[in-house]
Amino acid sequence: MDGMNVVGDLFGDGKMFLPQVVKTARVMKKAVAILQPIIEKEKASTGASSSNGKILMATVKGDVHDIGKNIVGVILGCNNYEVIDLGVMVPTEKILQEAIDQKVDIIGLSGLITPSLEEMVNVAKEMKNRNFEVPLMVGGATTSKVHTAVKIEPQYTEPVIHVKDASKSAQVVSALLSKTGKAAFVNKTKEEYAALRERNANKRPVVIAPISKAREKGFKIDWSQDQICTPNTMGIQVFDDYSIAEIRKFIDWTFFYQAWNLTGNYDGIETVTTAQQETEWLKKYKTENALAKAKEALKLWRDAQAMLDKIERDKMLTPKAVFGLFPANSEGDDVIVYTDESRTIEKTRFHQIREQQDKPGKETFHALSDFIAPVSSGVKDYIGGFAVTSGIGIEKWEKAYMDDHDDFSAIMLKSLADRLAEAFAELLHFRVRKEFWGYAPDEDFNTDNFIRERYRGIRPALGYPACPDHSEKRSLFDLMEVEKNVGITLTEHFSMYPNASVSGLYFAHPKAMYFGIGKIGKDQVEDLAQRKGISTDEMEKWIPINLSYR
In the structure, what pLDDT confidence band is assigned to residue 48 with cuts at 50, 70 and 90? Predict the structure, then answer.
Protein backbone atom coordinates (compact mmCIF):
# COMPACT_ATOMS: atom_id res chain seq x y z
CA MET A 1 0.00 0.00 0.00
CA ASP A 2 2.97 2.33 0.48
CA GLY A 3 3.63 1.89 -3.23
CA MET A 4 0.00 2.67 -4.07
CA ASN A 5 0.17 5.81 -1.94
CA VAL A 6 3.12 6.94 -4.07
CA VAL A 7 1.11 6.22 -7.22
CA GLY A 8 -1.80 8.23 -5.82
CA ASP A 9 0.48 11.17 -5.05
CA LEU A 10 2.11 11.06 -8.48
CA PHE A 11 -1.30 10.96 -10.17
CA GLY A 12 -2.53 13.87 -8.06
CA ASP A 13 0.57 15.85 -9.03
CA GLY A 14 0.04 15.10 -12.73
CA LYS A 15 3.19 12.97 -12.97
CA MET A 16 1.32 9.76 -13.71
CA PHE A 17 -1.61 9.34 -16.08
CA LEU A 18 -4.89 7.51 -15.64
CA PRO A 19 -4.04 4.41 -17.75
CA GLN A 20 -0.90 3.92 -15.65
CA VAL A 21 -2.89 4.23 -12.43
CA VAL A 22 -5.52 1.72 -13.55
CA LYS A 23 -2.83 -0.75 -14.65
CA THR A 24 -1.14 -0.30 -11.28
CA ALA A 25 -4.45 -0.98 -9.56
CA ARG A 26 -4.70 -4.23 -11.50
CA VAL A 27 -1.38 -5.39 -10.04
CA MET A 28 -2.42 -4.27 -6.56
CA LYS A 29 -5.77 -6.07 -6.68
CA LYS A 30 -4.26 -9.30 -7.91
CA ALA A 31 -1.68 -9.15 -5.11
CA VAL A 32 -4.29 -8.32 -2.48
CA ALA A 33 -6.42 -11.25 -3.67
CA ILE A 34 -3.52 -13.57 -2.83
CA LEU A 35 -2.84 -11.87 0.49
CA GLN A 36 -6.51 -11.44 1.49
CA PRO A 37 -6.61 -14.36 3.98
CA ILE A 38 -3.59 -12.92 5.83
CA ILE A 39 -5.06 -9.40 5.77
CA GLU A 40 -8.40 -10.60 7.15
CA LYS A 41 -6.65 -12.59 9.89
CA GLU A 42 -4.65 -9.53 10.92
CA LYS A 43 -7.76 -7.33 10.95
CA ALA A 44 -9.58 -9.87 13.10
CA SER A 45 -6.77 -10.06 15.64
CA THR A 46 -6.19 -6.31 15.93
CA GLY A 47 -9.71 -5.01 15.20
CA ALA A 48 -8.13 -2.30 13.09
CA SER A 49 -9.12 -1.22 9.62
CA SER A 50 -6.38 -1.12 7.03
CA SER A 51 -8.18 1.42 4.80
CA ASN A 52 -8.18 5.21 4.95
CA GLY A 53 -11.98 5.35 4.87
CA LYS A 54 -15.10 3.81 3.40
CA ILE A 55 -16.77 5.38 0.34
CA LEU A 56 -20.15 4.34 -1.07
CA MET A 57 -20.69 5.10 -4.76
CA ALA A 58 -23.74 4.74 -7.00
CA THR A 59 -25.17 5.88 -10.32
CA VAL A 60 -28.59 7.31 -9.43
CA LYS A 61 -31.99 5.86 -10.28
CA GLY A 62 -32.85 5.79 -13.98
CA ASP A 63 -29.25 6.26 -15.18
CA VAL A 64 -26.95 3.50 -16.48
CA HIS A 65 -23.70 5.36 -17.16
CA ASP A 66 -20.82 4.23 -14.98
CA ILE A 67 -17.42 4.44 -16.68
CA GLY A 68 -16.52 7.65 -14.82
CA LYS A 69 -17.72 6.19 -11.54
CA ASN A 70 -15.71 3.03 -12.10
CA ILE A 71 -12.58 5.06 -12.80
CA VAL A 72 -13.11 7.06 -9.60
CA GLY A 73 -13.46 3.78 -7.72
CA VAL A 74 -10.13 2.56 -9.04
CA ILE A 75 -8.39 5.82 -8.14
CA LEU A 76 -9.80 5.79 -4.62
CA GLY A 77 -8.78 2.15 -4.25
CA CYS A 78 -5.26 3.13 -5.26
CA ASN A 79 -5.32 5.66 -2.42
CA ASN A 80 -6.26 2.95 0.10
CA TYR A 81 -9.96 3.78 0.43
CA GLU A 82 -12.51 0.99 0.67
CA VAL A 83 -15.02 1.50 -2.14
CA ILE A 84 -18.53 0.06 -2.02
CA ASP A 85 -19.93 0.34 -5.55
CA LEU A 86 -23.69 -0.21 -5.76
CA GLY A 87 -23.67 -0.08 -9.57
CA VAL A 88 -26.21 1.72 -11.75
CA MET A 89 -29.91 2.67 -11.52
CA VAL A 90 -29.74 2.68 -7.72
CA PRO A 91 -32.86 4.01 -5.90
CA THR A 92 -32.44 6.56 -3.11
CA GLU A 93 -33.68 4.12 -0.47
CA LYS A 94 -31.01 1.55 -1.34
CA ILE A 95 -28.22 4.16 -1.35
CA LEU A 96 -29.14 5.44 2.10
CA GLN A 97 -29.80 2.04 3.65
CA GLU A 98 -26.48 0.68 2.40
CA ALA A 99 -24.74 3.80 3.73
CA ILE A 100 -26.23 3.09 7.17
CA ASP A 101 -25.54 -0.64 7.10
CA GLN A 102 -21.96 -0.23 5.90
CA LYS A 103 -21.22 2.78 8.16
CA VAL A 104 -19.66 4.69 5.26
CA ASP A 105 -17.68 7.90 5.58
CA ILE A 106 -18.78 9.51 2.30
CA ILE A 107 -21.53 8.98 -0.29
CA GLY A 108 -20.72 9.62 -3.97
CA LEU A 109 -23.41 10.01 -6.65
CA SER A 110 -22.90 9.79 -10.41
CA GLY A 111 -25.08 10.52 -13.43
CA LEU A 112 -24.95 11.49 -17.09
CA ILE A 113 -28.46 12.31 -18.31
CA THR A 114 -30.23 15.50 -17.22
CA PRO A 115 -33.04 13.80 -15.21
CA SER A 116 -30.28 12.49 -12.93
CA LEU A 117 -29.75 16.03 -11.64
CA GLU A 118 -33.17 15.97 -9.98
CA GLU A 119 -32.43 12.51 -8.54
CA MET A 120 -29.31 13.92 -6.87
CA VAL A 121 -31.40 16.71 -5.35
CA ASN A 122 -33.82 14.09 -4.05
CA VAL A 123 -31.01 12.07 -2.45
CA ALA A 124 -29.67 15.21 -0.72
CA LYS A 125 -33.15 16.08 0.61
CA GLU A 126 -33.65 12.57 1.96
CA MET A 127 -30.22 12.59 3.60
CA LYS A 128 -31.24 15.72 5.46
CA ASN A 129 -34.62 14.24 6.40
CA ARG A 130 -32.88 11.19 7.91
CA ASN A 131 -30.27 13.27 9.74
CA PHE A 132 -27.25 11.92 7.85
CA GLU A 133 -23.92 13.41 8.86
CA VAL A 134 -21.63 12.17 6.08
CA PRO A 135 -20.41 14.34 3.18
CA LEU A 136 -22.02 13.98 -0.26
CA MET A 137 -19.97 14.06 -3.47
CA VAL A 138 -21.57 14.42 -6.91
CA GLY A 139 -20.07 14.00 -10.37
CA GLY A 140 -20.79 13.06 -13.95
CA ALA A 141 -21.02 14.75 -17.32
CA THR A 142 -24.34 16.48 -16.67
CA THR A 143 -23.30 17.88 -13.27
CA SER A 144 -21.60 21.20 -12.63
CA LYS A 145 -20.30 23.26 -9.74
CA VAL A 146 -23.02 25.87 -10.30
CA HIS A 147 -25.86 23.31 -10.30
CA THR A 148 -24.40 21.71 -7.17
CA ALA A 149 -24.19 25.09 -5.42
CA VAL A 150 -27.64 26.31 -6.48
CA LYS A 151 -29.76 23.15 -6.44
CA ILE A 152 -28.12 20.41 -4.34
CA GLU A 153 -26.10 21.95 -1.49
CA PRO A 154 -29.02 23.97 -0.03
CA GLN A 155 -30.94 20.71 0.45
CA TYR A 156 -28.42 19.19 2.90
CA THR A 157 -26.75 20.46 6.05
CA GLU A 158 -23.49 18.52 5.67
CA PRO A 159 -20.78 19.15 3.04
CA VAL A 160 -21.82 18.73 -0.62
CA ILE A 161 -18.93 18.73 -3.07
CA HIS A 162 -18.94 18.69 -6.87
CA VAL A 163 -16.04 16.62 -8.24
CA LYS A 164 -15.15 17.86 -11.70
CA ASP A 165 -13.37 14.73 -12.88
CA ALA A 166 -11.83 11.51 -11.65
CA SER A 167 -8.39 13.04 -11.16
CA LYS A 168 -9.75 15.26 -8.36
CA SER A 169 -11.58 12.53 -6.45
CA ALA A 170 -8.79 11.33 -4.13
CA GLN A 171 -7.85 14.90 -3.28
CA VAL A 172 -11.46 15.74 -2.33
CA VAL A 173 -11.94 12.56 -0.28
CA SER A 174 -8.66 13.14 1.53
CA ALA A 175 -9.73 16.67 2.46
CA LEU A 176 -13.19 15.54 3.62
CA LEU A 177 -11.74 12.84 5.88
CA SER A 178 -8.81 14.85 7.20
CA LYS A 179 -9.02 15.54 10.95
CA THR A 180 -6.94 18.68 10.58
CA GLY A 181 -7.87 19.94 7.11
CA LYS A 182 -11.59 19.15 6.76
CA ALA A 183 -12.96 22.30 8.40
CA ALA A 184 -10.89 24.64 6.24
CA PHE A 185 -11.74 22.73 3.05
CA VAL A 186 -15.46 22.63 3.82
CA ASN A 187 -15.62 26.29 4.84
CA LYS A 188 -13.77 27.36 1.70
CA THR A 189 -16.15 25.29 -0.47
CA LYS A 190 -19.23 26.65 1.32
CA GLU A 191 -18.01 30.21 0.74
CA GLU A 192 -17.35 29.46 -2.92
CA TYR A 193 -20.82 27.90 -3.38
CA ALA A 194 -22.51 30.79 -1.55
CA ALA A 195 -20.78 33.19 -3.93
CA LEU A 196 -21.92 31.10 -6.90
CA ARG A 197 -25.51 31.20 -5.64
CA GLU A 198 -25.33 34.95 -5.19
CA ARG A 199 -23.81 35.43 -8.62
CA ASN A 200 -26.49 33.17 -10.12
CA ALA A 201 -29.26 35.13 -8.38
CA ASN A 202 -27.85 38.46 -9.49
CA LYS A 203 -26.86 37.63 -13.04
CA ARG A 204 -28.59 39.43 -15.85
CA PRO A 205 -31.82 37.58 -16.60
CA VAL A 206 -31.97 35.65 -19.84
CA VAL A 207 -34.24 37.40 -22.31
CA ILE A 208 -36.92 34.98 -23.48
CA ALA A 209 -38.93 35.76 -26.58
CA PRO A 210 -42.62 34.80 -26.41
CA ILE A 211 -43.11 31.45 -28.12
CA SER A 212 -45.41 33.12 -30.62
CA LYS A 213 -42.60 35.47 -31.69
CA ALA A 214 -40.06 32.62 -31.77
CA ARG A 215 -42.33 30.65 -34.10
CA GLU A 216 -42.84 33.65 -36.37
CA LYS A 217 -39.04 33.91 -36.64
CA GLY A 218 -38.40 30.21 -37.16
CA PHE A 219 -35.92 28.99 -39.77
CA LYS A 220 -37.50 29.58 -43.20
CA ILE A 221 -37.20 27.25 -46.18
CA ASP A 222 -38.81 27.87 -49.56
CA TRP A 223 -40.35 24.44 -50.01
CA SER A 224 -41.59 25.24 -53.51
CA GLN A 225 -37.97 25.38 -54.69
CA ASP A 226 -36.73 22.25 -52.93
CA GLN A 227 -36.46 18.80 -54.42
CA ILE A 228 -37.25 16.25 -51.72
CA CYS A 229 -35.45 12.94 -52.12
CA THR A 230 -37.76 9.94 -51.70
CA PRO A 231 -35.93 7.20 -49.75
CA ASN A 232 -34.80 4.16 -51.73
CA THR A 233 -35.73 1.90 -48.82
CA MET A 234 -38.85 2.77 -46.85
CA GLY A 235 -39.85 1.30 -43.50
CA ILE A 236 -37.81 -0.51 -40.87
CA GLN A 237 -34.52 -2.34 -41.47
CA VAL A 238 -32.64 -4.42 -38.88
CA PHE A 239 -28.96 -5.41 -38.66
CA ASP A 240 -28.53 -8.30 -36.26
CA ASP A 241 -24.76 -8.81 -35.96
CA TYR A 242 -22.79 -6.12 -37.77
CA SER A 243 -19.07 -6.49 -38.49
CA ILE A 244 -16.79 -5.02 -35.82
CA ALA A 245 -14.09 -4.82 -38.51
CA GLU A 246 -16.25 -2.36 -40.47
CA ILE A 247 -17.45 -0.38 -37.45
CA ARG A 248 -13.98 0.25 -36.01
CA LYS A 249 -12.99 2.18 -39.14
CA PHE A 250 -15.45 4.90 -38.07
CA ILE A 251 -14.18 5.41 -34.50
CA ASP A 252 -13.47 9.01 -33.47
CA TRP A 253 -10.58 8.49 -31.05
CA THR A 254 -10.74 11.99 -29.56
CA PHE A 255 -13.44 11.01 -27.07
CA PHE A 256 -11.66 7.75 -26.25
CA TYR A 257 -8.61 9.67 -25.04
CA GLN A 258 -10.84 12.07 -23.13
CA ALA A 259 -12.44 9.13 -21.30
CA TRP A 260 -8.95 8.18 -20.13
CA ASN A 261 -8.05 11.77 -19.12
CA LEU A 262 -5.50 12.02 -21.94
CA THR A 263 -6.82 15.06 -23.79
CA GLY A 264 -4.58 16.19 -26.61
CA ASN A 265 -3.99 16.07 -30.34
CA TYR A 266 -2.69 12.66 -31.36
CA ASP A 267 -3.18 12.93 -35.12
CA GLY A 268 -1.22 10.31 -37.01
CA ILE A 269 -0.99 7.90 -34.08
CA GLU A 270 -2.47 5.12 -36.20
CA THR A 271 0.50 5.29 -38.58
CA VAL A 272 3.08 4.58 -35.85
CA THR A 273 4.13 0.94 -36.21
CA THR A 274 7.95 0.99 -35.97
CA ALA A 275 10.45 2.43 -33.48
CA GLN A 276 11.64 4.95 -36.08
CA GLN A 277 8.10 6.11 -36.82
CA GLU A 278 7.49 6.47 -33.09
CA THR A 279 10.58 8.64 -32.69
CA GLU A 280 9.52 10.87 -35.59
CA TRP A 281 5.91 11.13 -34.36
CA LEU A 282 6.97 12.12 -30.84
CA LYS A 283 9.17 14.99 -32.11
CA LYS A 284 6.14 17.28 -32.46
CA TYR A 285 5.51 17.24 -28.70
CA LYS A 286 7.75 19.98 -27.35
CA THR A 287 7.09 20.13 -23.61
CA GLU A 288 7.94 17.43 -21.09
CA ASN A 289 4.30 16.95 -20.08
CA ALA A 290 3.02 16.85 -23.67
CA LEU A 291 5.69 14.29 -24.57
CA ALA A 292 4.87 12.11 -21.57
CA LYS A 293 1.14 12.23 -22.41
CA ALA A 294 1.80 11.37 -26.06
CA LYS A 295 3.89 8.34 -25.05
CA GLU A 296 1.10 7.15 -22.77
CA ALA A 297 -1.51 7.82 -25.48
CA LEU A 298 0.49 5.63 -27.86
CA LYS A 299 0.55 2.80 -25.31
CA LEU A 300 -3.18 3.22 -24.76
CA TRP A 301 -3.80 3.20 -28.52
CA ARG A 302 -1.92 -0.10 -28.84
CA ASP A 303 -3.81 -1.57 -25.88
CA ALA A 304 -7.07 -0.47 -27.53
CA GLN A 305 -6.15 -2.09 -30.84
CA ALA A 306 -5.31 -5.33 -29.04
CA MET A 307 -8.66 -5.24 -27.24
CA LEU A 308 -10.52 -4.48 -30.47
CA ASP A 309 -8.79 -7.43 -32.12
CA LYS A 310 -9.92 -9.64 -29.23
CA ILE A 311 -13.49 -8.26 -29.38
CA GLU A 312 -13.58 -9.06 -33.07
CA ARG A 313 -11.87 -12.45 -32.84
CA ASP A 314 -13.78 -13.77 -29.80
CA LYS A 315 -17.11 -12.15 -30.76
CA MET A 316 -17.26 -10.49 -27.36
CA LEU A 317 -19.86 -7.95 -28.49
CA THR A 318 -22.79 -8.25 -30.89
CA PRO A 319 -23.45 -4.91 -32.63
CA LYS A 320 -27.12 -4.49 -33.54
CA ALA A 321 -29.03 -1.71 -35.26
CA VAL A 322 -32.48 -0.75 -36.42
CA PHE A 323 -33.37 2.22 -38.58
CA GLY A 324 -36.48 3.37 -40.34
CA LEU A 325 -37.40 5.88 -43.05
CA PHE A 326 -40.95 7.19 -42.99
CA PRO A 327 -43.32 9.65 -44.68
CA ALA A 328 -43.46 12.81 -42.56
CA ASN A 329 -44.53 16.44 -42.43
CA SER A 330 -44.30 19.12 -39.80
CA GLU A 331 -47.24 20.71 -38.03
CA GLY A 332 -46.18 23.71 -36.00
CA ASP A 333 -43.24 22.55 -33.89
CA ASP A 334 -44.18 18.87 -34.17
CA VAL A 335 -43.13 16.31 -36.77
CA ILE A 336 -45.90 13.93 -37.81
CA VAL A 337 -44.86 10.44 -38.93
CA TYR A 338 -47.40 8.68 -41.17
CA THR A 339 -48.12 4.99 -41.57
CA ASP A 340 -47.73 5.14 -45.37
CA GLU A 341 -47.56 7.40 -48.40
CA SER A 342 -51.30 8.11 -48.30
CA ARG A 343 -50.44 10.32 -45.31
CA THR A 344 -53.92 9.89 -43.86
CA ILE A 345 -53.06 8.02 -40.65
CA GLU A 346 -50.65 9.42 -38.08
CA LYS A 347 -48.35 6.71 -36.66
CA THR A 348 -46.58 8.93 -34.13
CA ARG A 349 -45.27 12.44 -33.71
CA PHE A 350 -42.11 13.96 -32.34
CA HIS A 351 -42.66 17.06 -30.22
CA GLN A 352 -39.82 19.44 -30.95
CA ILE A 353 -38.66 22.36 -28.83
CA ARG A 354 -37.93 25.79 -30.27
CA GLU A 355 -35.22 28.24 -29.27
CA GLN A 356 -36.53 31.19 -27.27
CA GLN A 357 -33.39 32.76 -25.85
CA ASP A 358 -33.29 36.24 -27.38
CA LYS A 359 -30.43 38.66 -27.85
CA PRO A 360 -29.76 41.72 -30.02
CA GLY A 361 -29.50 40.80 -33.68
CA LYS A 362 -31.00 37.33 -33.29
CA GLU A 363 -33.10 36.75 -36.39
CA THR A 364 -33.91 33.05 -36.20
CA PHE A 365 -35.25 30.72 -33.51
CA HIS A 366 -34.62 27.14 -34.63
CA ALA A 367 -36.57 23.96 -34.06
CA LEU A 368 -35.84 20.65 -35.75
CA SER A 369 -39.33 20.68 -37.22
CA ASP A 370 -38.20 23.60 -39.43
CA PHE A 371 -36.24 21.09 -41.53
CA ILE A 372 -39.35 19.04 -42.43
CA ALA A 373 -41.86 20.35 -44.98
CA PRO A 374 -45.07 21.52 -43.26
CA VAL A 375 -48.41 19.85 -43.99
CA SER A 376 -49.66 23.14 -45.44
CA SER A 377 -46.94 23.15 -48.13
CA GLY A 378 -48.37 20.09 -49.86
CA VAL A 379 -44.81 18.75 -50.18
CA LYS A 380 -44.25 15.08 -49.34
CA ASP A 381 -41.29 14.89 -46.98
CA TYR A 382 -39.61 12.14 -44.95
CA ILE A 383 -37.83 11.55 -41.67
CA GLY A 384 -35.63 8.76 -40.33
CA GLY A 385 -34.98 7.21 -36.96
CA PHE A 386 -32.24 4.91 -35.70
CA ALA A 387 -31.03 3.00 -32.66
CA VAL A 388 -27.71 1.15 -32.48
CA THR A 389 -25.91 -0.74 -29.74
CA SER A 390 -22.53 -2.37 -29.30
CA GLY A 391 -23.24 -3.39 -25.72
CA ILE A 392 -24.92 -6.76 -26.25
CA GLY A 393 -22.78 -9.35 -24.47
CA ILE A 394 -20.63 -6.94 -22.50
CA GLU A 395 -21.82 -7.95 -19.00
CA LYS A 396 -20.32 -11.44 -19.21
CA TRP A 397 -16.89 -10.16 -20.19
CA GLU A 398 -16.92 -7.25 -17.77
CA LYS A 399 -17.75 -9.62 -14.91
CA ALA A 400 -14.98 -12.00 -15.96
CA TYR A 401 -12.43 -9.17 -15.93
CA MET A 402 -13.64 -7.87 -12.56
CA ASP A 403 -13.59 -11.38 -11.07
CA ASP A 404 -9.98 -11.57 -12.25
CA HIS A 405 -9.26 -8.20 -10.54
CA ASP A 406 -8.55 -6.63 -13.94
CA ASP A 407 -10.10 -3.15 -13.78
CA PHE A 408 -7.99 -1.99 -16.71
CA SER A 409 -9.45 -4.49 -19.17
CA ALA A 410 -12.99 -3.95 -17.83
CA ILE A 411 -12.76 -0.18 -18.27
CA MET A 412 -11.02 -0.56 -21.63
CA LEU A 413 -13.83 -2.82 -22.85
CA LYS A 414 -16.56 -0.42 -21.73
CA SER A 415 -14.83 2.65 -23.16
CA LEU A 416 -14.35 0.87 -26.50
CA ALA A 417 -17.96 -0.32 -26.51
CA ASP A 418 -19.04 3.32 -26.17
CA ARG A 419 -16.79 4.35 -29.06
CA LEU A 420 -18.04 1.45 -31.19
CA ALA A 421 -21.65 2.53 -30.59
CA GLU A 422 -20.89 6.06 -31.78
CA ALA A 423 -18.90 4.67 -34.71
CA PHE A 424 -21.78 2.36 -35.61
CA ALA A 425 -24.16 5.33 -35.60
CA GLU A 426 -21.78 7.19 -37.93
CA LEU A 427 -21.37 4.19 -40.24
CA LEU A 428 -25.13 3.65 -40.44
CA HIS A 429 -25.76 7.32 -41.16
CA PHE A 430 -23.21 7.15 -43.98
CA ARG A 431 -24.99 4.17 -45.51
CA VAL A 432 -28.39 5.85 -45.09
CA ARG A 433 -27.17 8.97 -46.89
CA LYS A 434 -25.51 6.99 -49.66
CA GLU A 435 -27.74 3.90 -50.12
CA PHE A 436 -30.93 3.54 -48.12
CA TRP A 437 -32.22 7.11 -48.38
CA GLY A 438 -29.85 7.85 -51.23
CA TYR A 439 -29.79 11.63 -51.15
CA ALA A 440 -25.96 11.62 -51.28
CA PRO A 441 -25.13 8.70 -53.60
CA ASP A 442 -21.73 10.09 -54.59
CA GLU A 443 -20.42 10.69 -51.07
CA ASP A 444 -17.00 9.12 -50.50
CA PHE A 445 -15.74 7.36 -47.40
CA ASN A 446 -13.73 10.00 -45.48
CA THR A 447 -13.24 9.65 -41.72
CA ASP A 448 -12.12 13.26 -41.34
CA ASN A 449 -15.35 14.45 -42.96
CA PHE A 450 -17.36 12.20 -40.66
CA ILE A 451 -15.65 13.57 -37.55
CA ARG A 452 -16.09 17.17 -38.72
CA GLU A 453 -19.67 16.50 -39.92
CA ARG A 454 -18.89 17.66 -43.45
CA TYR A 455 -21.83 16.00 -45.14
CA ARG A 456 -25.46 16.64 -45.93
CA GLY A 457 -28.01 15.83 -43.25
CA ILE A 458 -27.95 15.51 -39.47
CA ARG A 459 -28.67 12.78 -36.89
CA PRO A 460 -29.54 14.56 -33.61
CA ALA A 461 -29.75 12.31 -30.56
CA LEU A 462 -32.90 12.65 -28.47
CA GLY A 463 -32.06 14.11 -25.07
CA TYR A 464 -29.22 16.30 -26.34
CA PRO A 465 -28.90 20.00 -27.29
CA ALA A 466 -31.18 20.27 -30.37
CA CYS A 467 -33.88 18.04 -28.83
CA PRO A 468 -33.20 17.91 -25.08
CA ASP A 469 -36.33 16.00 -24.01
CA HIS A 470 -35.22 12.42 -23.25
CA SER A 471 -38.84 11.25 -23.00
CA GLU A 472 -39.21 11.57 -26.78
CA LYS A 473 -37.19 8.35 -27.01
CA ARG A 474 -40.34 6.45 -26.08
CA SER A 475 -42.00 7.51 -29.37
CA LEU A 476 -38.90 6.52 -31.33
CA PHE A 477 -38.60 3.14 -29.60
CA ASP A 478 -42.27 2.34 -30.14
CA LEU A 479 -42.12 3.44 -33.79
CA MET A 480 -39.28 1.05 -34.62
CA GLU A 481 -39.93 -1.64 -31.98
CA VAL A 482 -36.39 -1.09 -30.77
CA GLU A 483 -36.52 -3.41 -27.77
CA LYS A 484 -37.86 -6.29 -29.86
CA ASN A 485 -35.55 -5.68 -32.82
CA VAL A 486 -32.20 -4.98 -31.14
CA GLY A 487 -32.64 -5.49 -27.40
CA ILE A 488 -32.14 -1.91 -26.22
CA THR A 489 -34.43 -0.97 -23.34
CA LEU A 490 -35.29 2.36 -21.70
CA THR A 491 -35.06 3.06 -17.98
CA GLU A 492 -37.73 5.07 -16.17
CA HIS A 493 -35.68 8.18 -16.92
CA PHE A 494 -35.18 7.18 -20.57
CA SER A 495 -31.54 6.22 -20.33
CA MET A 496 -30.72 3.43 -22.80
CA TYR A 497 -29.54 0.00 -21.71
CA PRO A 498 -27.05 -1.38 -22.69
CA ASN A 499 -25.17 1.81 -21.98
CA ALA A 500 -23.19 1.54 -25.23
CA SER A 501 -26.18 2.59 -27.34
CA VAL A 502 -27.07 5.59 -29.50
CA SER A 503 -30.43 6.64 -30.91
CA GLY A 504 -31.86 9.63 -32.72
CA LEU A 505 -33.51 11.05 -35.82
CA TYR A 506 -32.38 11.55 -39.42
CA PHE A 507 -33.01 14.84 -41.23
CA ALA A 508 -31.98 14.99 -44.89
CA HIS A 509 -32.55 18.62 -45.90
CA PRO A 510 -29.36 20.34 -47.16
CA LYS A 511 -29.93 23.23 -44.73
CA ALA A 512 -30.49 21.02 -41.70
CA MET A 513 -27.99 21.92 -38.97
CA TYR A 514 -27.16 21.24 -35.33
CA PHE A 515 -27.93 23.85 -32.69
CA GLY A 516 -28.61 24.08 -28.97
CA ILE A 517 -32.03 24.96 -27.58
CA GLY A 518 -30.72 26.88 -24.56
CA LYS A 519 -33.22 28.37 -22.14
CA ILE A 520 -36.95 28.41 -22.86
CA GLY A 521 -39.96 30.10 -21.28
CA LYS A 522 -42.87 28.75 -19.29
CA ASP A 523 -45.24 29.53 -22.16
CA GLN A 524 -43.49 26.95 -24.34
CA VAL A 525 -43.20 24.43 -21.48
CA GLU A 526 -46.95 24.63 -20.89
CA ASP A 527 -47.57 24.33 -24.62
CA LEU A 528 -45.27 21.30 -24.85
CA ALA A 529 -47.00 19.64 -21.91
CA GLN A 530 -50.38 20.15 -23.54
CA ARG A 531 -49.18 18.76 -26.87
CA LYS A 532 -47.66 15.71 -25.17
CA GLY A 533 -50.67 15.16 -22.92
CA ILE A 534 -48.72 15.42 -19.64
CA SER A 535 -48.63 17.85 -16.72
CA THR A 536 -46.41 20.93 -16.73
CA ASP A 537 -44.58 19.54 -13.69
CA GLU A 538 -43.68 16.36 -15.57
CA MET A 539 -42.59 18.32 -18.62
CA GLU A 540 -40.28 20.39 -16.43
CA LYS A 541 -38.80 17.18 -15.00
CA TRP A 542 -37.48 16.11 -18.42
CA ILE A 543 -35.80 19.41 -19.36
CA PRO A 544 -34.58 20.96 -16.07
CA ILE A 545 -31.49 22.66 -17.50
CA ASN A 546 -33.55 24.38 -20.23
CA LEU A 547 -35.96 26.18 -17.89
CA SER A 548 -35.31 29.92 -17.81
CA TYR A 549 -37.47 30.48 -14.73
CA ARG A 550 -35.82 28.10 -12.25
Answer: low
